[in-house]
């Protein structure tokens, strides 16, 4: 068989679930007999991703003890998970560079922005494609289920891992083969039944900011979502959480306390850490200080659990922040092809996140623009453009856009042009399709115009066409500069960033 990187991706992609089942799987109860009543778990559809993980790890050659020996920091939450994981890894990598331990770090996050191998990092660097393919086919050789097309009618273990389960297996296998000293592990969704929760004895567990997201599978309310996320808490593992902004009688924090106590732990809520450097661009906007503080607390708790000095040095903290980067979050790119055009990219994909993205865009553009937004089309100031796309059966794209439009309006960030697009990545020169706006697109138009009625709206059938449209608007505008906000999904931000960097 062809054992290239491309072939590995072909097999992984072939195991994507086409769509979630409409109803809860009737066989769940036999596989998960301890399914609690009244916890919100009835919202789950289909088989929980945790089912089968232990059974697939065994033929690959890894026991529960092998996974536990990775010395894991496990992170769940609604927003800020990737940033928090990257901060925790960066703090420990900086500490290891100074002291010699940890000598080698691993980081697993999901989803990827541009390339699938971004999900698995060693010492802060994406693994190379040769190792990605080599380790994948080592798994392939040991799991005969992967040799046949995915068949959802078979029992779970016999059908083999789905797409995300396979990525998690590949990450565990890579970290074990590479003999890392520690791993920071991000959940995919939820926590209790997430594929990554096959870890029985992490050293540290951490919960980032929680909000209303994945309601269909984790809801219906915040307490249900908190219950799922806190499923990563384990006996013997430090339990941390960022300070939760909950307006309903501290319900969320109460759930986290209860779930930690059930494991014999006391959850510690982490406030903003004053040791973080001021003025660092990596800690902008302010929410990143919150994520960094939780990452710092997790790193120090990990060192304490390993019997090492608890507190990182001031130099460790400074160096970790300076070396930290996270693609697709609060990213500013100056367009090399269009003079004066600046792109602001953030992969926000829920209502909490797009509101923060709007605030960040407003603050950044206000600082960069000498003229007020009222001069948008007057020959001065900047042409402000939004590129938006969000396609997800579990979220309401119209509600997401409404939150974004309202937040931009409240921040006085008036948008001159909005470009709606699909996730298609056809290059503009190859794009011959005539995309007629669907009913969904018409709803997006109406939602936007309700908040900012003076905006010119465009529909483009591919991401490449949307980028070309934005560049043309700036190029032929009478304004002196262009400011383009790209948000709504990683599936949008990744391809746009790839175009800009090409």
Account of the protein in words:
- With 502 residues, this protein is α/β, with parallel strands linked by helices.
- It folds into 3 domains: 79 residues, no CATH class; 180 residues, Mur-like, catalytic domain (UDP-N-acetylmuramoyl-L-alanine:D-glutamate ligase, 3-Layer(aba) Sandwich), CATH 3.40.1190; 171 residues, Alpha-Beta Complex (Protein-Tyrosine Phosphatase, Chain A), CATH 3.90.190.
- Helix content is 40%, strand content 13%.
- It has 18 helices and 14 strands.
- About 8% of the residues have low confidence.
- InterPro entries: Folylpolyglutamate_synth (IPR001645), Mur-like_cat_sf (IPR036565), Mur_ligase_C_dom_sf (IPR036615).
- Its EC number is 6.3.2.17.
- It catalyses: (6S)-5,6,7,8-tetrahydrofolyl-(gamma-L-Glu)(n) + L-glutamate + ATP = (6S)-5,6,7,8-tetrahydrofolyl-(gamma-L-Glu)(n+1) + ADP + phosphate + H(+).
The CATH first-level class of the largest domain comes to: Alpha Beta
- Span between N and C termini? 32 Å
The shape is globular
Say how many strands there are. 14
Report the average pLDDT across residues. 88
Low-confidence runs (pLDDT<50, min 5 residues)?
21-31, 33-38, 370-379, 426-436
The CATH topology of the largest domain is what?
UDP-N-acetylmuramoyl-L-alanine:D-glutamate ligase
CATH superfamily of the largest domain: Mur-like, catalytic domain
Tell me the radius of gyration. Answer: 23 Å
Largest sheet: 8 strands, mixed
**How large a portion of the residues is in β-strands, by DSSP E?**
5-15%
Strand order of the largest sheet: 4-3-2-5-1-6-7-8
Number of domains: 3
Organism: Friedmanniomyces endolithicus
Family: Belongs to the folylpolyglutamate synthase family.
Keywords: ATP-binding, Ligase, Magnesium, Metal-binding, Nucleotide-binding, One-carbon metabolism
Catalytic activity: (6S)-5,6,7,8-tetrahydrofolyl-(gamma-L-Glu)(n) + L-glutamate + ATP = (6S)-5,6,7,8-tetrahydrofolyl-(gamma-L-Glu)(n+1) + ADP + phosphate + H(+)
